[in-house]
Design goal:
single chain; about 200 residues; mainly alpha; Arc Repressor Mutant, subunit A; Tetracycline Repressor, domain 2; 2 domains; about 0% strand
C-alpha cells in the first residue's frame, strides 16, 4: 500500500467507517430496519461515497465475507500439523460458528441467507472458489492420503458435503432462532458425517 495518495487513504478509511457503522447498525436494529440513508448519516459519509464503495447495503455482507475468508486462511495456518484431518476440520468448523455468531449475529446471518436466495444475485456464499472450500479440500486430501478418511468420494465432493452441513447449522440457528450452541451443534453434525467417511 506504499505510495498511496492522501485521497486514496481517505477513500479506504471512509469505506472502513461505512462498513463498521453498517454492521453495528445491523446488529443493533436488524438488517431490514436500517436504511442506506441512516448508514450514511451515522458514518458521516456522503451517499455518493457509499455508492462509490457498495452497490447496496447487501454488499456490506460481501465485504464481511471477504474478511471471513481471511479469517479461514489465517486459522488454517495456525493449526498444528500434528492434528489429524478430522481434528483440523472440526476445529475449523467450530471456529467458523463462533466467528460468525460473534461477528455477524443471528440477524446478520438471517439477512445474508435471505439475500442469497434472491435469484438475480451472484451468490458469493456458495462460491466453491472461496478459501473455505479449498481449505476443506486440502484437509480432506491429507486425510485420504494418510488413510484416515475414505477415498470413495473425491475431496471436492466431501468438501461440498461438509460445507453444506456448516451452512445448514447456521441456517437453523438463524432462521429458527435455535436455542442451541453453534459449536456443539456443528460438532455433533460432523461426528455423524465423519462416522460415514472414516476408514
Amino acid at each position: 500500500m506504499a505510495n498511496m495518495t492522501s485521497r486514496q487513504e481517505k477513500a479506504i478509511e471512509t469505506k472502513k467507517r461505512i462498513l463498521r457503522t453498517a454492521l453495528a447498525l445491523f446488529s443493533e436494529k436488524g438488517f431490514d430496519r436500517v436504511s442506506v440513508d441512516e448508514i450514511v448519516r451515522k458514518s458521516e459519509a456522503s451517499k455518493g461515497a457509499f455508492y462509490g464503495h457498495f452497490t447496496s447495503k447487501y454488499d456490506i455482507f460481501l465485504e464481511k465475507f471477504k474478511e471471513i475468508d481471511q479469517f479461514y486462511s489465517a486459522f488454517q495456518e495456525s493449526l498444528p500439523e500434528s492434528l489429524s484431518a478430522e481434528q483440523k476440520i472440526r476445529k475449523l468448523a467450530i471456529a467458523q460458528m463462533e466467528y460468525l455468531r460473534d461477528e455477524m449475529g443471528r440477524d446478520g446471518i438471517r439477512s445474508l441467507y435471505a439475500y442469497a436466495l434472491t435469484p438475480s444475485v451472484d451468490n458469493y456464499l456458495s462460491d466453491t472458489e472461496r478459501p473455505l472450500y479449498a481449505i476443506l479440500e486440502t484437509m480432506i486430501s491429507e486425510g485420504q492420503q494418510s488413510g484416515e478418511l475414505t477415498s470413495s468420494l473425491k475431496p471436492g465432493r466431501l468438501a461440498l458435503l461438509l460445507s453444506r452441513s456448516m451452512r445448514g447449522t447456521l441456517y437453523d440457528w438463524a432462521i429458527f432462532g435455535g436455542d442451541f450452541d453453534l459449536a456443539d451443534e456443528i460438532d455433533s453434525a460432523l461426528e455423524l458425517l465423519f462416522h460415514g467417511i472414516r476408514q
